[in-house]
Design goal:
Layout: H1 29-37, H2 43-52, H3 57-61, H4 73-85, H5 91-100, H6 102-108, H7 115-125, H8 129-142, E1 150-159, E2 167-168, H9 170-188, H10 204-229, E3 244-245, E4 252-255, E5 261-272, E6 278-284, H11 293-304, E7 310-312, H12 320-329, E8 332-334, H13 341-351
Parallel strand pairs: 1-7, 7-8
Antiparallel strand pairs: 1-5, 2-3, 4-5, 5-6
Helix pairs in contact: 2-4, 4-7, 5-6, 5-7, 9-10
Length: 352
């Protein structure tokens, strides 16, 4: 029995010929020992069953079938899902676990993928994740696991990997760009860089990469300066307070929930109120909820095939724009009304 029979249902035997054979099959004594140890209801077995429900043809088609044979993508996907369920999101961790974890060795039929291969696989599957999520959601609706009529929309800030201590305003960023340009000119003229700052790359290739990085940061900073200039005077920041991270320019500098000023992303989720399912998700490069509701509901519609009838939100989503969209879409929106300076001042006057 070939190892491929475990996953892929009735897939033809030739489907896996383009890929490297697994060290074990279901008949291998090593695999059978692990199979006997694995409980009947173990997460690894449930992951296998879940992966078998997915349409993996686009993933298989993404491999050209030339050069060195790739590892079985269906088995690697099972490993990734199993690891993510344990909140292990790093391919470096997956590499260690593939050698040390019995459930993973069972899932991988003895394969021990390298760290580089797992990083490549993580990037390869990214374009397919949303479609696989939609397949799961549609299956849940078909099997009446949820009516998909009631949902809640909420967002949370997530710290970017960029340092919170290395943020640049326009003047400081320009100084960095000038330093890189001077260093490149010296290297091209055959000079050394004996007294260069620690942050500055020492080779021509490294300096060119740094220059591209800082140029991208400058483009993002220009966009933020333009957006800041369009704000009302009371909401406008001084130009030198508009900041960007050079290593992660898309992340927005703001205060997180612990009041730490750092580069942040915002994760938005539409959750089902009748099951643990997530109908739609997205990562945003903004630190507020403006304009979020409509695209998140549209993503849910793409994934599930329908809009929610009822949507719960917090005060950050209650705006004229969102109310108009919900009214046109037939969605009943529940959320606390926002207070502004005028309403707060009015309330204080009325209480006297």
């Amino acid at each position: 029995m070939e190892a491929g029979s475990m996953l892929g249902g009735d897939a033809p035997r030739g489907k896996f010929r383009r890929f490297a054979p697994t060290p074990w099959t279901q008949e291998s004594p090593e695999w059978q020992v692990l199979d006997q140890r694995l409980p009947h209801d173990h997460l690894a077995r449930r992951v296998v069953a879940a992966v078998e429900m997915l349409d993996l043809d686009p993933l298989f088609a993404s491999y050209l079938g030339v050069g060195k044979k790739a590892l079985r993508p269906d088995l690697l996907l099972s490993m990734v899902i199993y690891e993510m369920q344990g909140k292990r999101a790093s391919p470096a961790q997956w590499t260690r676990d593939a050698r040390e974890s019995e459930p993973l060795r069972w899932l991988l039929f003895g394969m021990e993928p390298s760290r580089a291969r797992l990083y490549d696989f993580r990037d390869r599957i990214a374009p397919f994740l949303e479609e696989w999520n939609a397949q799961v959601l549609q299956r849940a609706v078909e099997e009446n696991l949820t009516p998909a009529t009631r949902a809640a929309l909420d967002g949370t800030s997530v710290a970017a990997l960029a340092s919170r201590r290395q943020l640049f305003n326009e003047e400081r960023l320009q100084k960095r760009c000038d330093t890189i340009a001077d260093a490149l000119e010296q290297l091209c003229n055959g000079a050394n860089l004996p007294d260069s700052p620690a942050w500055l790359a020492k080779t021509e290739d490294g300096l060119r990469r740094q220059r591209r990085c800082y140029q991208r940061a400058g483009e993002v900073l220009d966009e933020r300066q333009a957006a800041n200039a369009e704000r009302r005077s009371g909401k406008r920041k001084p130009a030198d307070k508009v900041l960007v991270s050079a290593s992660d320019p898309e992340a927005v500098p703001a205060r997180d929930k612990e009041n730490v000023f750092r580069p942040l992303y915002t994760v938005q989720l539409v959750r089902d109120l009748d099951s643990p399912l997530v109908f739609s998700y997205s990562v945003w490069t903004q630190n507020n909820d403006n304009g979020v509701l409509e695209p998140m509901v549209e993503r849910m519609t793409d994934n599930v095939g329908r809009k929610p009838e009822v949507l719960l939100v917090d005060s950050g989503y209650v705006s004229i724009r969102h109310l108009e969209f919900c009214a046109q879409a037939g969605i009943t929106l529940y959320g606390p009304c926002q207070e502004n300076d005028y309403s707060v001042q009015n309330r204080k006057k009325n209480s006297k």
